[in-house]
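Field log, afternoon session.

UNIT: design team B
ACTIVITY: writing a sequence onto a fixed backbone
BACKBONE:
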């Protein structure tokens, strides 16, 4: 039996997820799509799928068993609340939502429902290299993690991007992966802004973000969204007795008159292709059982708090503290945070 899925938002990642759900993965069928741009939804609809006029109609349809949200961050809250009200498992692209208040409303609704329904698209947690890196840190042979260096470079971003987006759309990945890798919570955020990249001097880009973790570890994040040369994601954990790093992606080695070199991925679709496949494999199994796995509403909330604090820190120039609510039992044991 295939899981019957409806997709909300058929832009860049919506199209890529429809491709993997229809051409790569098994046990799933895309039975419906919708987008505020109905022409886009029509051209994205796989053969036999229904085009719905609104997300509400798609989510409420009895033929849709589970929902995939790929609309803009600001639209996620209403669509998540509708899916939870319908009791349907929902995969929601990051960011979960774009404000603390919205995250709390989604969490309250899911807790009241009484079962996890929401999985957030933090695909790095499903990437084989990040998983091996975490296994080394958790193995304990390198001692306690002290510093994590997270580099997040995009070749370019759409013209419409504003200066908030590097902090509330891009940084959420680094916030989430830092919490997950170090098994820790972020307690404070600082931001420094160097000179701007000439490619987009209308944008606050790059930015350097310092995450203060509960254990006392520090995470420095470089966010550069117009680096030009490619999509370059790096990570290095510096521990008491050694250092563990993400490897370079395996790529064909080309030798010619310019030298010996390996290609750099163009964007997230290429760099994380296997990770997205794996996050959906695991989601399809969980959603088929009426629930969710991996990154939860709690994790989406934590990343949203970091984004909010980073936006405040840009203005204040200082350390912006983060206070989390008590973790509901639905999301498992609370991570121990030093006083
Ligand atoms: N996990 C990852 O690596 C990535 C995640 N994303 C996330 O996926 C989401 C979508 O991003 P993109 O596909 O890049 O954007 P996009 O702009 O290419 O596509 C978004 C689509 O959603 C539609 N839409 C917006 N609001 C809607 C609403 N209320 N109802 C129905 N449709 C609506 C738009 O018309 C558009 O077709 C964002 O939250 C983004 O942060 C995007 C790229 C990579
Ligand atoms: O999630 C993603 C995009 O939405 C975001 O805009 C990019 O900066 C990230 O690198 C990508 O993974």
């Amino acid at each position: 039996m295939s899981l019957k899925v409806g997709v909300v938002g058929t832009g860049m990642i919506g199209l890529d997820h429809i491709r993997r759900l229809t051409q790569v993965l098994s046990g799933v069928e895309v039975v419906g799509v919708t987008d505020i741009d109905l022409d886009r939804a029509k051209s994205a609809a796989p053969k036999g799928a229904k085009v719905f006029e609104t997300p509400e109609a798609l989510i409420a349809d009895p033929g849709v068993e589970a929902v995939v949200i790929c609309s803009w961050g600001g639209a996620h809250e209403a669509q998540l609340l509708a899916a939870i009200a319908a009791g349907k498992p929902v995969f929601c692209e990051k960011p979960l939502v774009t404000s603390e208040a919205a995250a709390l409303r989604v969490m309250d609704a899911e807790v009241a429902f009484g079962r996890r329904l929401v999985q957030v698209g933090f695909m790095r947690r499903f990437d084989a290299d990040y998983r091996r890196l975490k296994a080394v840190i958790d193995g304990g042979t390198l001692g306690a993690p002290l510093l994590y260096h997270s580099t997040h470079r995009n070749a370019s971003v759409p013209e419409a991007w504003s200066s908030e987006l590097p902090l509330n759309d891009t940084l959420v990945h680094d916030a989430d992966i830092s919490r997950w890798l170090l098994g820790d919570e972020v307690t404070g955020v600082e931001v420094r802004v160097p000179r701007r990249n000439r490619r987009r001097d209308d944008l606050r880009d790059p930015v350097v973000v310092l995450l203060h973790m509960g254990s006392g570890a520090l995470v420095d994040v470089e966010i550069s969204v117009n680096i030009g040369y490619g999509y370059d994601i790096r990570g290095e954990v510096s521990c008491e007795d050694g250092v563990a790093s993400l490897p370079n992606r395996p790529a064909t080695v080309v030798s010619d008159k310019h030298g010996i070199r390996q290609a750099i991925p163009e964007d997230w679709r290429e760099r994380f292709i296997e990770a997205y496949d794996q996050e959906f494999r695991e989601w399809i199994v969980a959603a088929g059982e009426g629930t969710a796995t991996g990154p939860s509403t709690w994790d989406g909330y934590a990343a949203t708090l970091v984004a909010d604090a980073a936006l405040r820190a840009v203005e204040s120039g200082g350390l912006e503290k983060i206070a989390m609510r008590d973790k509901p039992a639905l999301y498992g044991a609370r991570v121990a945070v030093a006083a």
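LOG NOTE: The domain at 3-123+274-297 is CATH 3.40.50.720 (Rossmann fold).
NEXT ACTIVITY: expression trials, pending approval
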